[in-house]
Write a structure and sequence with these properties.
The structure is a single chain. This protein is an alpha+beta fold and about 500 residues long. It has two domains: about 45-130 and about 140-305; about 370-500, Glutaredoxin, CATH 3.40.30.10. It contains ten helices and 25 strands. The strands form four sheets. It has a 15-stranded antiparallel beta sheet that branches.
C-alpha cells in the first residue's frame, strides 16, 4: 500500500513538473513578446489586412455633437453644446467594387442660426454603381427636389471614408496607414499599453504630414484604439501646405469595438478637432460617432444597394451632357423623372426608335422661357403646352417654316399651345423681330442669349441638341419635352403626346 502511494505521488510529481515547465516556457515566450515588439511594418500590415476584410457591408451610424466653438466671421453661432441627441445619420454600403454613402443632417448645420428640424434635414448622396457616378444634394423640405450630378463612366467615388475607417481630419483623403508607409522613420513603443482591456502598441512619427501618435490594438484585429495628430505650418494638408501661424490638432479617443462575423470593428469614437487657420479664426469641435448597425456580406443585388433610390423625382441636373462643363441657366433643363415616357438617350435626344438605349430616367424640360423670349414678352400659363421654333431669319427654309406655323395659329390656340420663335443668332434679334412684325406673324419673337465668356452660341445650340434649322421642340403642360426635330406633317401625332403624357 505504501509503495502504491509513493508511486502515485512520484507520478503526480512528474505531471506537476511538466506543468511548471510549460508555464515557465510560456512566461519566457510572453517576456520575449514584450521585449521584442512588432515592427512598424508588421503593425501596418496587420491593420491593412483587417481593412481588406471589410469590403462588403452595410453600416449605419449617427453623429452626436458634444461641443462646438468657432470664431469664424462666417459662423452665425459661435458656441453650441450638444444635448446628447444625434444631428446626422449616415448609411454606407460597399461590395469592394461599388460604393454608396448617404447622409442626413439637421440642427444648426454649418453653425447657421436657424435650427433645421429632422423632418427638413439636408441630404447628400454619393454613389458609384460600377458604371456611373452620382452626387445628389437636397433637403427633406416639402417642394424641394434637389440637384443631381450624373457622370457616366467617371469613378468619382468608390471608397467609404471617415474617422472610423482610418481617415483623419484634413489628411488629403488618404487612409492613415498609407500615409505612414511613406514615412522614413516610424517608432514603435518598447512596451504595450492597455487601453479598454486591449493590448495596444504605440506607433509614432514626425513627418512631412505632421506628428502622429497611434495605438493599434493587438487584441482587436489591430484596429486603432486611440490616435493623436498635429499639423503645423509647412505640413501637408488637403493637397497643399499649412499656412503660417496655423495649427490643427486632431484626436480619436474612447473607441469601442464589437465583433461582427469574426472581425473586430470600431463602433464608437469620440473625435476632437482644433483648427486655427492662421488668420485669427479658430474652430473646435468634440463629437461622438456611433455605429448603430453593422451588416457584413449582405446580398447587395437583392437589396438593390447601389441604385440611386434616394434621388427625388424632379431633381435638376445642371451638368448632364453639358459640353461647356458649367452650370447653364437657360433652357433646356434636364430633370430626374422616373415615371415618364419621354426619357432622353445618352446624347440628350428623345429616342427615335424602339432599340434606343435609355441609360437614366432623365427628361428634358423647358422652364426659363423668359430668358429666350425677353423679359415681359412671354405670358405663358404654368399649365400651357409650348411649341418652340428655333430658326434663322436669314435662312429661307426658316422663313418658310415660320409662315407655315402662322397658318396653323388657330389650331394652336384651340389646343392651348403657346408658340415661341427663337432666333439662333443673337445679333440678328432686331432683324428677326422686324421680320415677324412685317409679315404679321402672330407669335412671340425671342432669341438665344448673346454669347459671353461662359457660353458660345454654338454651345447653346448643342445644349438644346439642335441638329439643323429650322428645329421644332414641343413640351407638354408639365414642361417636359415630348417631341423634337419633327416636321409639320407629324404635328397630329405630336399633339397626341400632349394629351397622353
Amino acid at each position: 500500500m505504501k509503495m502504491q502511494i509513493v508511486s502515485i505521488f512520484r507520478s503526480g510529481s512528474i505531471q506537476i513538473s511538466s506543468v511548471v515547465a510549460n508555464l515557465l516556457n510560456l512566461s519566457i515566450v510572453c517576456s520575449a513578446q514584450v521585449t521584442h515588439p512588432p515592427t512598424a511594418t508588421e503593425i501596418l500590415d496587420h491593420y491593412a489586412a483587417t481593412q481588406d476584410k471589410l469590403k462588403s457591408f452595410i453600416i449605419r451610424e449617427e453623429t452626436i455633437p458634444i461641443e462646438i466653438r468657432s470664431t469664424s466671421q462666417r459662423s452665425q453661432i459661435h458656441y453650441l453644446k450638444g444635448d446628447g441627441k444625434p444631428t446626422a445619420i449616415i448609411e454606407s454600403r460597399s461590395d469592394g467594387q461599388r460604393a454608396k454613402w448617404y447622409n442626413r443632417m439637421w440642427g444648426h448645420i454649418g453653425l447657421r442660426r436657424e435650427n433645421t428640424p429632422p423632418e427638413e434635414a439636408a441630404t447628400n448622396l454619393h454613389l458609384w454603381d460600377g458604371k456611373t457616378s452620382y452626387q445628389f444634394d437636397s433637403t427633406l423640405k416639402p417642394g424641394h427636389r434637389g440637384i443631381l450630378w450624373v457622370n457616366p463612366g467617371k469613378k468619382q467615388f468608390d471608397e467609404i471614408r471617415g474617422c472610423l475607417w482610418g481617415f483623419f481630419y484634413c489628411d488629403n483623403q488618404k487612409r492613415v496607414d498609407t500615409i505612414l508607409r511613406g514615412v522614413e522613420k516610424l517608432t514603435v513603443a518598447k512596451q504595450p499599453t492597455q487601453i479598454n482591456g486591449g493590448t495596444c502598441w504605440l506607433l509614432e512619427t514626425q513627418c512631412k504630414c505632421g506628428r502622429y501618435q497611434i495605438w493599434f490594438d493587438a487584441d482587436h484585429d489591430w484596429q486603432i484604439a486611440r490616435a493623436y495628430m498635429q499639423k503645423k505650418p509647412g505640413d501637408l494638408w488637403n493637397g497643399g501646405t499649412m499656412p503660417p501661424d496655423s495649427l490643427i490638432y486632431y484626436a480619436q479617443q474612447d473607441i469601442q469595438f464589437k465583433q461582427v462575423d469574426g472581425i473586430w470593428i470600431p463602433v464608437e469614437v469620440q473625435e476632437r478637432v482644433v483648427h486655427n487657420n492662421g488668420k485669427g479664426e479658430k474652430y473646435e469641435s468634440r463629437e461622438k460617432i456611433r455605429r448603430t448597425e453593422v451588416i457584413m456580406n449582405p446580398d447587395h443585388d437583392k437589396l438593390k444597394s447601389f441604385e440611386p433610390t434616394e434621388v427625388l423625382d424632379g431633381a435638376t441636373i445642371p451638368f448632364y451632357l453639358n459640353t461647356s462643363g458649367i452650370h447653364h441657366v437657360v433652357d433646356p433643363e434636364f430633370v430626374w423623372l422616373r415615371n415618364s415616357r419621354f426619357h432622353v438617350d445618352a446624347q440628350g435626344h428623345l429616342p427615335k426608335g424602339p432599340d434606343a438605349v435609355i441609360p437614366y430616367p432623365i427628361v428634358k424640360t423647358v422652364r426659363n422661357l423668359d430668358v429666350l423670349a425677353g423679359k415681359g414678352k412671354w405670358e405663358r400659363k404654368s399649365t400651357q403646352p409650348v411649341l418652340l421654333c428655333f430658326w434663322d431669319v436669314a435662312q429661307a427654309d426658316s422663313q418658310t417654316r415660320v409662315r407655315e406655323l402662322a397658318l396653323k395659329n388657330e389650331e394652336f390656340s384651340k389646343r392651348g399651345i403657346g408658340v415661341l420663335l427663337v432666333e439662333t443668332e443673337p445679333g440678328s434679334r432686331e432683324k428677326a423681330d422686324h421680320w415677324v412684325i412685317t409679315n404679321q406673324i402672330p407669335f412671340v419673337s425671342g432669341s438665344l442669349p448673346p454669347p459671353d465668356d461662359k457660353h458660345l452660341t454654338s454651345e447653346r445650340l448643342t445644349e438644346w441638341r439642335i441638329d439643323c434649322l429650322p428645329w421644332l421642340v414641343l413640351a407638354n403642360a408639365e414642361q417636359t419635352v415630348v417631341a423634337e426635330g419633327f416636321d409639320l406633317t407629324q404635328l397630329p401625332d405630336m399633339f397626341k403626346r400632349i394629351s397622353n403624357p
